[in-house]
């Protein structure tokens, strides 16, 4: 990509390795998700349609439920041992889980144990993906500066979507060409191992290494000489390690992150379940989801490209405002015997302008403290995914059962409006607007000539304090 030409050779290599690793990680993660219509019949007992929907929701949620614990674990490693260690560990966990799933007996062979084992594997995959995508995004954010930072970090998300598309491609081979589904997981395991080995070439981000080394050396020197500044430098270390995060920043990040989980489930899982009720075969559902994923990738790539010229928060707000009217008409479209064309239209709208943080991820990351960044971001990301997975999956099953398609309003509207609120809060942090929420929705002031760079500004300030 021409807009990345300003990056150094080492920066380009790091971005490339992280893209490859994220692609491999999400190929493995999404392989089961997009073959769920087939694999759920193999690993879960056959039931009535409503119970089957609940089991599908449970299999989907199992990827997210324990993510907060994984976020705390990988967050600690990322903030204390480094970003590189984390992204290597995540791909190895994914490789192990894929090997287990490739050899796992079906429900017909071992009964309910198959359902529990596949759920545990999905949990492990969810935990590893937690450290993967956050680690890669933080790494690229810390080695680049605006405006090239925005598309560079956005390419990580594009790589995850390519992994999703390829996973759908393998799912199509399984359902249409007789390709053994177990071979798909063997392929996933193999490429996860390759990804782990490739990432050993990464170097820890220089900012992380320099700041850790500078503070540790300063404190060691003061302790050895017993100088008067010992208390001051110890206080400095505590300040660096325990910087507070504004509650509005955390809430805004949570609101934006929640939109992605909603769009993922609604576009692929919920709409896929609707197609199944219309009599679509697993092959037809996977094929339609494959087309939708290609459209989503094109839309994401266009947004990433534009982020070099247009501030990412403006792009997110524009897309969400376009999506809001469609959210209002979706229940009308689904209330009277929806057709396959209607569902495809809803999926395409969600793929092109649905809720999501890309290409604004770098902006979200930059406003968290350096030495707590991995823990805070990964935990908030995990909590948003876990909560929204439960609310959207089980919520949609029961709300639409009692209220029909009108039950969608109770989930889609609040999440979309909270997403817009989160974007306006980050616009204020980026000095793009100072207006209240409602007035700022239609404020299209252009990106400032010099974008704020909290990471490098804070690092410079800490360096000056340490040197004093």
Give a structural overview:
This protein has helices spanning 9-34, 36-43, 49-61, 67-80, 83-103, 107-110, 112-143, 149-176, 181-199, 206-225, 230-241, 247-277, 282-306, 312-335, 340-353, 361-366, 373-403, 409-429, 437-440, 454-467. With 468 residues, the protein is an all-alpha fold. Helix 1 (9-34) packs parallel to helix 5 and helix 1 (9-34) runs antiparallel to helix 7. It is globular, with a radius of gyration of 23 Å. The protein starts with 8 loop residues before the first helix and ends with a helix.
List the helices and strands and how they pair.
Layout: H1 9-34, H2 36-43, H3 49-61, H4 67-80, H5 83-103, H6 107-110, H7 112-143, H8 149-176, H9 181-199, H10 206-225, H11 230-241, H12 247-277, H13 282-306, H14 312-335, H15 340-353, H16 361-366, H17 373-403, H18 409-429, H19 437-440, H20 454-467
Helix pairs in contact: 1-5, 1-7, 1-8, 1-9, 3-17, 4-5, 4-7, 4-17, 5-7, 5-9, 7-8, 7-17, 8-13, 10-11, 10-20, 12-13, 12-15, 12-17, 12-18, 13-15, 14-15, 14-18
Kindly report how far apart the N and C termini lie. Answer: 42 Å
Series of H and E elements? HHHHHHHHHHHHHHHHHHHH
Give the domain tally: 1
Number of helices: 20
Care to count the β-strands? 0
Shape: globular
CATH domain topology: Growth Hormone, Chain: A
Regions with little confidence, pLDDT below 50 for 5+ residues: 446-452, 455-468
Largest sheet: none
- Class inferred from helices and paired strands: mainly alpha
Radius of gyration: 23 Å
CATH architecture: Up-down Bundle
Share in β-strands? under 5%
* CATH class call: Mainly Alpha
* Mean pLDDT figure: 79
Q: What percent of the residues sit in helical stretches (DSSP H or I)?
A: over 70%
The CATH homologous superfamily is termed: MFS general substrate transporter like domains
């Amino acid at each position: 990509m021409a807009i990345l030409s300003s990056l150094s050779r080492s920066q380009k290599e790091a971005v490339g390795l992280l893209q490859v690793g994220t692609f491999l990680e999400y190929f493995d993660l999404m392989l089961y998700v997009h073959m769920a219509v087939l694999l759920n019949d193999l690993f879960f007992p056959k039931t009535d349609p409503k119970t089957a929907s609940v089991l599908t929701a449970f299999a989907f949620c199992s990827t997210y439920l324990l993510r907060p614990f994984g976020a705390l674990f990988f967050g600690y490693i990322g903030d204390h041992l480094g970003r590189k260690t984390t992204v290597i560990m995540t791909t190895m966990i994914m490789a192990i889980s894929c090997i287990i799933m490739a050899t796992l007996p079906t429900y017909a062979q071992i009964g309910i144990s198959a359902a529990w084992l596949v759920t545990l594997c999905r949990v492990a995959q969810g935990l590893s993906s937690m450290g993967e995508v956050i680690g890669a995004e933080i790494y690229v954010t810390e080695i680049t500066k605006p405006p090239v930072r925005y598309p560079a970090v956005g390419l990580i998300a594009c790589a995850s979507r390519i992994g999703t598309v390829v996973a759908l491609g393998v799912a199509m081979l399984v359902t249409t060409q007789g390709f053994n589904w177990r071979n798909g997981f063997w392929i996933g395991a193999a490429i996860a191992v390759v990804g782990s080995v490739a990432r050993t070439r990464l170097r820890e981000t220089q900012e992380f290494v320099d700041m850790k080394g500078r503070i540790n050396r300063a404190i060691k020197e003061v302790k050895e000489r017993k100088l008067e500044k010992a208390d001051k430098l110890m206080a400095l270390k505590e300040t660096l390690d325990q910087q507070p995060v504004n509650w509005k920043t955390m809430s805004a990040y949570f609101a934006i992150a929640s939109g992605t989980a909603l769009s993922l489930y609604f576009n692929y899982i919920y709409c896929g379940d609707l197609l199944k009720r219309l009599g679509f075969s697993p092959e037809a559902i996977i094929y339609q989801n494959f087309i939708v994923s290609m459209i989503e990738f094109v839309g994401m790539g266009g947004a990433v490209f534009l982020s070099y010229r247009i501030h990412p928060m403006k792009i997110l707000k524009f897309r969400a405002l376009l999506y809001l009217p469609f959210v209002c008409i979706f229940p009308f479209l689904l209330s009277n015997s929806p057709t396959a064309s209607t569902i495809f239209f809803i999926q395409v709208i969600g793929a092109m302008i649905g809720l999501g943080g890309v290409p604004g991820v770098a902006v979200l990351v930059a406003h968290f403290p350096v030495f707590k960044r991995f823990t805070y971001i990964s935990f908030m990301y995990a909590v948003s995914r876990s909560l929204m997975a439960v609310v959207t999956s089980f919520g949609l099953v029961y709300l639409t059962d009692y209220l029909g398609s009108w039950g969608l309003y109770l989930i889609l509207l609040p999440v979309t409006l909270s997403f817009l609120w989160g974007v306006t809060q980050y616009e204020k942090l980026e000095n793009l607007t100072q207006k209240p929420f409602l007035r700022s929705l239609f404020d299209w002031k252009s990106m400032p000539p010099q974008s704020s760079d909290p990471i490098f500004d804070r690092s410079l300030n800490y360096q000056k304090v340490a040197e004093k």
